[in-house]
Amino acid sequence: MDQRHNNDESAPRISWGAVLGLRDSAGLDWGAIRAAQIAALHGSTAVRFLANVIGVILLTLVLRQYADPLLLYGWGVSTLLLATHTAVGKWRLRGWNDRSATRGELHKETAGAALTGVLWGFPALLFSANGGLEQTLALWAVLTALMAGAAFVLTSIPLATVSFLLIVGGALGTWMWQIELPILAVAAGLNTLILLVTASLSGRQFVNSRVAELQLAEKKEVVSLLLREFEDTGADWLWQIDAARCLTHVSPRFATALGLDLSELEGKPFLQVLAGDSWEAGNFASGLRELAEKLKRRESFSDLILPVKINGLTRWWELSASPRLDDRGTFLGFRGVGSDVTQQRDSADKINRLARYDTLTGLPNRMLINETLARAMQDADQWRSRCAFMMIDLDRFKAVNDTLGHPVGDRLLSHVAERLRSLMTDNELCGRLGGDEFAVVVRDASDPSRLEALARNIIETLSRPYEVDQHTLYIGASVGTAVGPKDGRTAEMLIRSADLALYRSKDAGGGSHHRYEPQLHADAEERRTLEIALRSALEKGELHLVYQPVVSAKDTTIEGFETLLRWTHPKLGPIPPYKFVPVAEDARLIAPIGEWVLRTACMEAANWPTTVRVAVNVSPEQLNDPNFVTSVISALSHSGLPPQRLELEVTESIFLREGTGAINVLDQILGLGVKLALDDFGTGYSSLGYLRKTQFSTIKIDRSFVQGAAKNSAESLAIIRAVVAMADSLGMTTTAEGAETEEEFEMIRQLGCRKVQGYLFGKPMPAEEARQVIAKAIRSRAAA
Predict the structure, then answer these.
(1) Residues 6+ apart with CB under 8 A from 211
(2) 0.70 cut: is pTM over it?
């Protein structure tokens, strides 16, 4: 079937009715063929005009003495007027290259030829009885010559040739018969017949030649288009539709792509073929609607992708096409190319998913979260509503990785993702930012109470125990929320605001939710300013140490000094430690600063009596530094201070930090002979387990309990008694902080505390003043 179709397409049969211009054969562009016929006729205009003029002049000269002058000259003028009119009309159309013509235009040329034939048939009928042999031969010669010329110059339009020859030849034969020359009448008829056959065959050959040229040009155009599309877009089949959007010239590869036969597709509406079963329901894909709109507007398009259902499977096609116009601008339809891009699209979808989804949890990643938040911000701005962004950080997650390994940590993150996903509605999208950080985009955050409830629900749900690989794991969650556009006009600003709110939640100890406040930004800016200044504070000598005495509760003799760090900025003035120490820890500046403090304190303490110790506060960040033990050894070595005279003070928070690195560092420090003190015991997550893990020499009781006991607070008194009893049983000493009056000191001594620290015995003082205090104490003992 395909082969027959191709043969028919390459060599169509042209009927005589089509050759004569009476009807059009299917599958050919007859507008272009008719235009070529008329153009060829126009090319002989000058010859035709000249033949008419010469013929009229000859007959007029030959017959002027024999014919009625009125009839003769009337005929001559009429013939010349028609020839002139025709020539002028053709002259105006000189250079005529219109590639499309109607049957009416072709028949107009035929009518002109017939009218000319009628005028040239008149002399044989009107003037044949006049004159002698000379006039008869002249008339015969002129008419026969005109018939021969017409058979030659009018051959491009066979019907025009036939009309002219029949009229003039009929008149010539009739004339011969009237003058009783039957043999010449028959000769005239045979001559006319021969010219008719010759002209008709020539005309058909002309039409066939033009058809072949058009088909060759069309094939070249198709091949050119296919090659261009193959090179540019990898297209692999051709499609063509007419002005009614029905398929024409269906290519075998197009039919194969649809899984149908050529006969089923020819003449079928293109959109119906692509729509398949959805044609009746009217449930069209957006790509098909876009294609329909392009066809309706007669616009060129390229790389238009739409789904096509073939044998129950959805395939993705990529189409490109341009409208087809004739030389008059008449719309003929569309011709285009297409290719199956299902495999490429599937690969692109996989790549897109990998780019926008977290491979571990399956949640949207940072890219998709940012895109979703940006759209939510646009919608909020358009509808004057609110959206929100929540940042979630897992508490104590690092401890799971450090103790049980990353595989368990990864599975724990997957469980966290499942719980988060279960809390989401169509109004929210949750994703993973990276590590143990997650986020939630709330598209409509107009209800603050609903937002608060969601945050509490997240914290509560994520804080429930997890069962992973036969381990029961306990972690928590901290949440920071920012509402747009109030807390940020762009997605980046809103994320920054939520991050500041999350920092506040983490700073509060975790397991809490904070919303962004403008003060957070001010605090962050202050921290940024402090961080910049702090980076050069050590080099510029802006940092200095002060020392506060620690005395024996028994006889108030000085047992040591606690080293305290101070910072005086040339422009900002004195900056309290509670402000700059957290900044130093976050900016990873605490290691060099802490090393300087330790080295300076040891150098100063080396000048004191051997019975006086120096205590140095150590932050959890320092204990997580692998070089910290080396720093302690270096400070002791350079100063010559015995290890037992150095006491490092740490807080309970080191036991709440994720991982066990800090505890290992403390064990190494104890191995050097350095003493350890547990500072602020009782103010945090106090547990006897801490004291079992590490051999502390001193427990420091926070000043809040001392002040509470001075006010006869039963709770504070009970806590101090319990700590003292516990320390005595474990062989530790106790130091009470914040003693400011004699009454407080007496109460502390009665409660059993071994050492006391407070303003009553001295405020934090410079090194020189500390030396003076030590010297004065020595003199007092000597005098006693």
Answers:
(1) 12, 14, 28, 33
(2) no
